Every structure is written in structure tokens, then in C-alpha cells.
């Protein structure tokens, strides 16, 4: 059998099907017309949010230690999301913006229903369908002028009064069943007309009538009061509380300890750091002097609304103003919109997209109480609209978000 040696000059358009047997090593740099696949990044560990893919969404990432393969599903600088596409587990989700509030429901616990009586009812309304309101059980002891904060599973109600000057009882109830609240402990002393802040692990009781300058801490893990961790610059009752990811804010209020002589109503906005839990600092002023209003928080702003207004020692009318202040930079508040009606003693709730002001009173007593739920949309900051009603009219209760 004769063999014909082929040279570069007489090899052209040979069919791949005519090639058989092993081919010798080829220099890939001489190949043309070959298109590359998706970039594969390699490292001995899993990707993180700050693992930035040059080719964006669709980039593959191989963990050379475990063999797990990841696909980039969200390409945002230092905020990337990676989906584990291999046999393992543990995908890295892109982090969501922080917001103080809930995604499912708002709750109201207790409250004043007439001028001389209180209530133990816990109401629930849906953030998806605000008109869907239901009775969620009862408190262990009815009360008003209390405050609340939230763990990931329970609403916690602190202090308040069914006897004067205030009680130290702490109650909690489950967001997912209607079994009602149980008593889980006590504060160091009774507190009433206080405000509150929350992180994912702790709740903070701020100011109030009986302990007007203190910032006290409660542990969700142990259901225990853990002591005083700081102080307000200006002690106050009826302050309005907002939450950023790193700080608790208190604005406005009444009867300030340390306030200038002859000043009953406050407009100062203070904040304290959750990391250091020290004395708060002044960061600006609200547009009005008021107390016992509502508040809610978006991921970027705190909002203070309504309340009982006054100047110096002179009592004024109830307010319908909604103020906002920035979490990213300290400064004075701005007036952005109005409530449907003037309101004090109302309940402020926060969802991911909206703030709600529920119940409250136009005159500050049970005789003027309402059951209306007002909605404020963070994106538009337009005037509130009424979207539903609680099961009964009341004011000065505790508010919770789930």
C-alpha cells in the first residue's frame, strides 16, 4: 500500500468525518474561528457578595476545593448574587436593603378605648391587603400607654398602665398563632408613655414618664431585661421613634428633662448607636413641637407624624404634619405631606414600601378615638389615604410589625 504525504499546499476543506485515529498535539494559538464560552472564575473558596465578575451575569465560578459551581445571577459591584448550580448547597444571595418593619402584617396590642378604660385586644392587618383586619388574641393584661418591639417571631409589649403611675410587666405573643400573650418578665421599674427601638436581637425602651432619660435593653434570646445602656440628652415622654440599621432615633416629646426652662414640648431629634449603646446625640430638629405622635421608617428615612402640639408651655392643636429626616446625614427634618386627619396617640407601622398610622384620637382621649388605618407610600410621599379599620377604636397602645 502506497502512502502519499500531504503538505500544507494540498490540504483544503477536508471533512471532519474523514479524520480517524489520534491526532498529534496541536498549537491552539494557530486556531481561528473558535468562539469562547462563558468566563469561569476559579478559587479555593466560595464566591462572596464582593466577588465581582468581569463578564457580569452568567459568569461561572468554580470552587476548586469542593467542586461546587456557582452562576452569577446579580452583577452589582460588591453586592453580587451567586446561585449554587452544582450538587452542593449554600448559594450566596444578594443582600436586601435594610428596612425597619415587616413584610406580612402589622399588629396593635392594647390601648385606651374610653376616657377611663383600657383594652387587651391584639389586632392584625395585612400589609398586602390592608382592609383584611382580624382579632389576633388577647394580652395577658390589658393596658395602654405602652410600647412594643419585634423579634423575628414575636411581638413584645413593655410597660404601660392599668394602674398609675405605670407597670413594669413585659409580655410577648406569637405572630403566627392567636393564642394570645404571656408574661415573660419585668423591667427594672414601671414605665409609661415611652417609645421603643429594635435591632434583630434586642429591643430598647426609650424615655417615658417614670424613667424619662433612660435607654433600657431587652434580649429577644433570653426574654429578659438586661439593664440601662444609655441616656437621652433630653428626657421625654411621648417621643416618636424611628429605626435605621445602625441607630435608634427619638424625636419630639413632652416634659423634657434638661430642656430649657419653660419648654414643655420638644422638637429635637436624637439618635444612639446600637453598636456602642451610649448616650444619644442631637442630630437636628423636627419642623414642629409635638408629643405622642406616630412614626415609621423606610430604609433611608425616618418619619414623624401627627401628635399633640404646643410651643413653650402653651398647648396647641393636634397635628397632621408628616416630617422626614435622613438616616445617611444628620440635619433638620422637612415637612413632606399630611395625614388625613389630625391625630395623636396613634400607632405607627412600617412595611417594606409604606408606613401606616392606625387608630389614635383627634382630641387625645378615648372619646375622640378612631379605628381608621392610614397609609403613607414611601416612594411618593403623598398625603395619607384611609385603607381600612381596626376591630375597635382606641389610642395609646403598642405597635408591632411582622
Describe the structure.
By secondary structure, the chain is mainly beta. The protein has no helices and 32 strands. The mean pLDDT is 88.
Largest sheet: 5 strands, antiparallel
Helix % is under 10%
Oligomer class? single chain
**Overall geometric form:** elongated
The total of beta strands comes to 32
Topology overview:
Elements: E1 40-43, E2 60-63, E3 69-74, E4 81-84, E5 105-114, E6 117-126, E7 133-138, E8 147-150, E9 154-158, E10 167-174, E11 182-191, E12 195-198, E13 202-206, E14 214-219, E15 224-231, E16 235-237, E17 240-243, E18 247-257, E19 265-273, E20 281-285, E21 290-291, E22 294-297, E23 301-305, E24 308-311, E25 314-318, E26 321-326, E27 334-338, E28 347-350, E29 354-358, E30 372-377, E31 385-389, E32 398-401
Parallel strand pairs: 1-2
Antiparallel strand pairs: 2-3, 3-4, 5-6, 5-32, 6-7, 8-9, 9-10, 10-11, 12-13, 13-14, 14-15, 16-18, 17-18, 18-19, 19-20, 21-24, 22-23, 23-26, 24-25, 26-27, 28-29, 29-30, 30-31
In a few lines, what is going on in this structure?
This protein has 402 residues and is an all-beta fold. The chain has no helices and 32 strands.
Amino acid at each position: 500500500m502506497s502512502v502519499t504525504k500531504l503538505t500544507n499546499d494540498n490540504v483544503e476543506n477536508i471533512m471532519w468525518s474523514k479524520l480517524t485515529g489520534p491526532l498529534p498535539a496541536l498549537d491552539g494559538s494557530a486556531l481561528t474561528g473558535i468562539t469562547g464560552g462563558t468566563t469561569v472564575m476559579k478559587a479555593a473558596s466560595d464566591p462572596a457578595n464582593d466577588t465581582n465578575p468581569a463578564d457580569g451575569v452568567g459568569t461561572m465560578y468554580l470552587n476548586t476545593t469542593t467542586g461546587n459551581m456557582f452562576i452569577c445571577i446579580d452583577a452589582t459591584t460588591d453586592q453580587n448574587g451567586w446561585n449554587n448550580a452544582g450538587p452542593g448547597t449554600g448559594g450566596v444571595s444578594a443582600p436586601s436593603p435594610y428596612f425597619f418593619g415587616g413584610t406580612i402584617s402589622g399588629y396593635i396590642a392594647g390601648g385606651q378605648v374610653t376616657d377611663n378604660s383600657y383594652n387587651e385586644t391584639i389586632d392584625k392587618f395585612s400589609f398586602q391587603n390592608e382592609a383584611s383586619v382580624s382579632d389576633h388574641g388577647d394580652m395577658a393584661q390589658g393596658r395602654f400607654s405602652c410600647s412594643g418591639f419585634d423579634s423575628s417571631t414575636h411581638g413584645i409589649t413593655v410597660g404601660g398602665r392599668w394602674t398609675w403611675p405605670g407597670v413594669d410587666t413585659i409580655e410577648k405573643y406569637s405572630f403566627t398563632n392567636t393564642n394570645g400573650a404571656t408574661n415573660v418578665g419585668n423591667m427594672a421599674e414601671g414605665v409609661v408613655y415611652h417609645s421603643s427601638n429594635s435591632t434583630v436581637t434586642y429591643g430598647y425602651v426609650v424615655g417615658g414618664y417614670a424613667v424619662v432619660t433612660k435607654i433600657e435593653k431587652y434580649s429577644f434570646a433570653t426574654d429578659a431585661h438586661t439593664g440601662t445602656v444609655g441616656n437621652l440628652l433630653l428626657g421625654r415622654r411621648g417621643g416618636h421613634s424611628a429605626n435605621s440599621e445602625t441607630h435608634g432615633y427619638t424625636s419630639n416629646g413632652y416634659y423634657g428633662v434638661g430642656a430649657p426652662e419653660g419648654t414643655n414640648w420638644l422638637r429635637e431629634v436624637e439618635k444612639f448607636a446600637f453598636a456602642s449603646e451610649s448616650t444619644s446625640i442631637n442630630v437636628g430638629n423636627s419642623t414642629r413641637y409635638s408629643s405622642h405622635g406616630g412614626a415609621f421608617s423606610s430604609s433611608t428615612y425616618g418619619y414623624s407624624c401627627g401628635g399633640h402640639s404646643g410651643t413653650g408651655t402653651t398647648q396647641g392643636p393636634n397635628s397632621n404634619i408628616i416630617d422626614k429626616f435622613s438616616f445617611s446625614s444628620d440635619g433638620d427634618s422637612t415637612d413632606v405631606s399630611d395625614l388625613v386627619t389630625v391625630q395623636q396617640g396613634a400607632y405607627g407601622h412600617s412595611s417594606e414600601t409604606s408606613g401606616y398610622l392606625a387608630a389614635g384620637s383627634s382630641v387625645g382621649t378615648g372619646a375622640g378615638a378612631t379605628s381608621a388605618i392610614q397609609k403613607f407610600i414611601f416612594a411618593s410621599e403623598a398625603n395619607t389615604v384611609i385603607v381600612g379599620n381596626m376591630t375597635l377604636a382606641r389610642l395609646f397602645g403598642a405597635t408591632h410589625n411582622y
